[in-house]
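Before surveying the methods themselves, let us examine one representative protein, written as a sequence plus integers encoding its fold.
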Amino acid sequence: MSGYKNNHKPYGPYEKYFKRPLDIIFSLLALIILSPVLLVVAILVRIKLGSPIIFKQDRPGKDEKIFKLYKFRTMTDERSKNGKLLPNEKRLTRFGRMLRKTSLDELPELFNILKGDMSFIGPRPLLKEYIPYYTAKERCRHHIRPGLTGLAQINGRNAIKNWEERLNFDIKYVNKCTFRTDIEILIKTFLKVFDHSVILDGDRVVVGRLDEERGKSR
């Protein structure tokens, strides 16, 4: 994107030398260990929702480079009589809601992590259409790889109503990325996913309010 400049300096040795290798090792291990789960979910998605099994969407990654985000499909292709797709809430089935509630739809993002598009921990990648709405300070969320989960997800992401508050968590993480912080985020994410108090994909609520908060002022 025009006008973007990455002047980010790694916070320490962990971010500079160890974070990416650990992402590669653990994403590969997770894909091997969870392969039966991935296979079962893929089969169920094909049976209940049809093809394609994997939903792909453009998202901005590190340095605002666009990549394809992978997820399991959660909606049907049901259309109206005039051929237009029905609203999302009409196409989201009970099975799809279950996938989202348990965050099982996010498992294909392990391939994004292995490829280097993402990290386990980092700012959640939002839609590319919203980049023009960021302030210069907020664009620093793209200084590092986006994450499967992050500070916003473990700090009441579903309850935070303010756009700036959400992005401030991302900025805080970018400015101080440590091994201890990553471990704490991972542990809290697992706990919150299991009690269903967090859904990993932060854009499902955030972007719905973005036009209200900033679009009208432009």
Remarks:
- The longest strand covers residues 54-60.
- Residues 13-217 form one domain.
- The longest helix spans residues 13-33.
